Amino acid sequence: MKKLLFKILFILLGFGIYPSVDSLAQETAFVVSNSPMQDVVIPNYHYDFIPDFTYEMVDERIKKMETEMPFELNDKIFSFIHYFTVRNREYMKMILSRKENFFPLYVKTLKAHQMPQEIQYLSIIESGLDPRIKSHAGAMGLWQFMPATGRMYGMYVNQDIDDRMDPEKSTDAAAKYLKSLYGMFGDWEVALAAYNCGPGNVQKAKRRSGGKTTFWEIYEYLPKETRSYVPQFQAMIYILNHLEEHNLHMEEPTYPIAYEEIKFDKAFHLEKLAEYSNVCLEDLVELNPSIKNGKVPESNISLSIKIPKSKILYVKENLAWIGDSLSKSYRPLLSTSDIIASNNQNSSNQLTYKVKSGDMLGKIASKYGVSVTNLMQWNNLGSSIIHVGQLLYIYSGSPSESVTSNSSQNLADNGTRSSSSKTYTVKPGDSLWNISQKHSLSIEQIKRLNNLNSTTIKPGQRLIIG
Questions:
Q1: In the chain, what are the domain boundaries?
Q2: Residue 114, CB half-sphere, CA atoms under 13 Å: how many?
Q3: Main-chain phi, psi angles of 303, to 5 degrees
Q4: CA dist., res. 322 & res. 431, Å (int)
Q5: Distances in Å between the alpha carbon of 199 and those of 122, 179, 190, 217?
Q6: pLDDT (tens digit, 0 to 9) for every residue of the chain, 466 residues total?
Q7: Any idea which residues carry the catalytic annotation?
Q8: Residue 432: how many CB atoms within 10 A of its CB?
Q9: Which residues face 145 on adjacent strands?
Q10: CATH classification for the domain delimited by 334-405, as one of 3.40.50.620, 3.30.70.980, 3.30.830.10, 3.10.350.10
Q11: Euclidean distance between CA atoms 306 and 260, whole angstroms
Q12: How far is CA 43 from the centre of its chain?
């Protein structure tokens, strides 16, 4: 009898037919009570039980919620609650597995900006808590910033570094942007709509509605995506506060890696840092998502690198030789002929150029008698796009008054130097440590001779070494 019952049960499961919990319990009890084997172990069949709920039940729960951003249930919000708790539970399980990585950061940031804590749930709608996700329109990161908006809020974006993928920087920027939108519209629901479609579209919706001011009053005049955006956010507020009622639990949650930040002040590859510091490369990549291609370029040498706390003491104790090894192992994307040529340049031809408004690579290359290809290779550029304020290194051509050599700052005459001073021009990959070894000087002596406050040096910089 027992074997027959389980055989029937497995056949039913194979066809997707699930007997009710009560009927299964009754049949199992019958088998146990009628079996000569009193110690039969009944298998524990795991399934994802979805509790029933009604509109009225959800409405009552929402009315009892104490939130800084209160909302009222309607059919649109309820439909999204049903979708995420019934039809797409796998998405909610994924969110729950990721939330501990970012929600503590969100809570801290929103508190610092004196903003409602519920705003943390907006990141779920924006990115599904994936810091590297990119939209078809080019928005990136947990809070889906477009490049221009990201730069407006102090995030660096180029072919190697994209701060929009940095959780701390992007969260702080999102808080500032949302707070400015709230100041503009005086209503959090409308501010969220503006975050999604832009304040211009919201202003247009307000005009078309005849001057209405609340989200649901201008709802019909907003873009289609925005009409779903705010109700989804409100559905998440409800769900994340009523997980038990919908049998949603964290399964295999992930937690953030404790870290400290260190500045190496040089270009390097993450792979090499992992090798020299005995840090897991995967941990470095996870902690530093804004580093896109596994390298910190010359243009971003001041970037702070997050190191797991478990390795921070070792890195600090060995910082000098790790930094020197990183410098030696880093090679810009130069051809052999370019490297030879740049190494043979005299100091007057090794320059740093700061991009100005209206500049183009072709124009700069023509001005200094170099090719666009070389200019791109010298500066690790993946395209011809350059930005105002960006520093470009030029290793040939004639200097001009619009080019500023770093040596002009470090060779300021303090009354103790003469024109006969022995100098050295910094090359790609150089560090103060390897320069000091070549010229039998200490790092402190070089710093003192050149009035340096740090060990940061750049290609083309002229240093006094005697």
A1: 1-47, 55-246, 259-329, 334-405, 406-466
A2: 3
A3: -65, 135
A4: 11
A5: 17, 13, 9, 16
A6: 444 444 444 444 444 444 443 443 343 333 333 434 445 454 444 457 999 999 999 999 999 999 999 999 999 999 999 999 999 999 999 999 999 999 999 999 999 999 999 999 999 999 999 999 999 889 999 999 999 999 999 998 888 899 999 999 999 999 999 999 999 999 999 999 999 999 999 999 999 999 999 999 999 999 999 999 999 999 999 999 999 999 998 877 888 899 999 999 999 999 999 999 999 998 999 999 999 888 998 888 889 999 999 999 999 999 999 999 998 888 654 433 344 344 444 434 557 788 888 788 778 877 777 777 677 767 766 566 777 778 787 875 433 333 333 333 332 333 333 344 577 877 766 777 767 767 777 776 777 777 776 777 776 677 887 6
A7: 126
A8: 27
A9: 140
A10: 3.10.350.10
A11: 6
A12: 45
**Residues shown for the chain:** 466
Amino acid letter, residue 277: S
Question: Does 406-466 carry CATH code 3.30.200.20?
Answer: no
User: Same topology for domains 334-405 and 406-466, yes or no?
Assistant: yes
CATH topology (fold) of 55-246: Lysozyme (1.10.530)
> What tokens does 156 get?
């660096």
Q: What letters, b where the CB count within 10 A reaches 16 and e where it falls short, cover 258-294?
A: ebeebebbbbbbbebbbebbebeeebbebbbbbbeeb
Q: What is the dihedral of CA 173, 174, 175, 179, to 10 degrees?
A: 110
Contacts 24+ apart (CB under 8 A), 68-76: 68/116, 68/117, 68/118, 69/116, 69/118, 69/119, 69/188, 69/237, 71/189, 71/234, 71/237, 74/216, 74/231, 76/227, 76/228, 76/231
Buried b (16+ CB within 10 A) or exposed e, 415-426: eeeeeeeeebbb
Q: What is the DSSP string of 276-292?
A: HHT--HHHHHHH-TTB-
Burial class (CB in 10 A: 0-12, 13-18, 19+), 202: buried
With tokens 């038990």, the residue in question is: 244
**Position of tokens 């150029």?**
353
pTM given for the model: 0.62
Residues in a beta bridge with 424: 463
